[in-house]
Design a protein that fits this description.
CATH topology: Rossmann fold
Mean pLDDT: 96
Radius of gyration: 14 Å
CATH architecture: 3-Layer(aba) Sandwich
Shape: globular
CATH class: Alpha Beta
Distance between the termini: 13 Å
Low-confidence stretches: none
Oligomer: single chain
Helix content: 55-70%
CATH superfamily: 5'-nuclease
Number of helices: 6
Number of strands: 5
Largest sheet: 3 strands, parallel
Length: about 120
Amino acid sequence: MILDTNALSAAAESTPAALRILVECESVAIPVIALAEFRFGIAQSRHHAVYERWLRDWLVDVDVLSVSERTSRCYAEVALELKRKGKPIPTNDLWIAALCRQYSLPLLSRDRHFDHVSGLRRFDW
């Protein structure tokens, strides 16, 4: 399962419904894009130190997915599909969708615009 930024935030906040999904996952991965967005958010938080500690401990058990040349091909495919449908999504989410396609993994996210990406299975909590 790949986590979007809002799913990572839900895990950090120990949101019960999100945690129930995560404990059932065989593996959990975080796109480097979502990790950067999350770090930007915690950098602005008054609880910065608490979230940084949580993240450091949590990253030990998950894979961080980097963007590669293959990811760029998936990005182009997804972007073109969505353009043809008239359903654009934010650029960072295009990268996340491309990683989902590249690794054939579902996504945990509250963002419904991912539902416009063909072949992407999105789970919500």
